Amino acid sequence: MIVWALWLGLAILSFAALETVAFRTGRWPSLSLATWRVFQAFPLIAVVFGMVFGALAVHFFWHWCPPGSMSAG
């Protein structure tokens, strides 16, 4: 559990550092601008992202086992 908390903390700190450099220096785009540029060039990427994150949400948070399934015992 501690390892995942540390990883998440480092991810948040690295995001904050990259966004700070992007806004202050303008050397590279911010995450929102980069995302907009990718969606502008490849519109179906938004659908793929939605499918991936939707599948992960169902996998992690939908704890329902239909009758007759292998897990419903």
Feature tags:
73 residues, mainly alpha, 71% helix, flat
What does this structure look like?
The chain is mainly α. The protein has a domain at 18-61. It has helices at residues 2-25, 31-41, 45-61. It is flat.
Q: What's the arrangement of secondary structure elements?
A:
Elements: H1 2-25, H2 31-41, H3 45-61
Counting H and I runs of at least 4 residues, what is the number of helices? 3
The chain-level structural class is: mainly alpha
Low-confidence stretches: none
**Could you spell the SSE succession in H and E letters?**
HHH
Question: What's the gyration radius in Å?
Answer: 19 Å
Major sheet attributes: none
Average predicted local confidence, pLDDT: 88
Number of strands: 0
Measured distance between first and last alpha carbons: 30 Å
Identify the overall geometry: flat
Helix content: over 70%
Strand-residue fraction?
Answer: under 5%
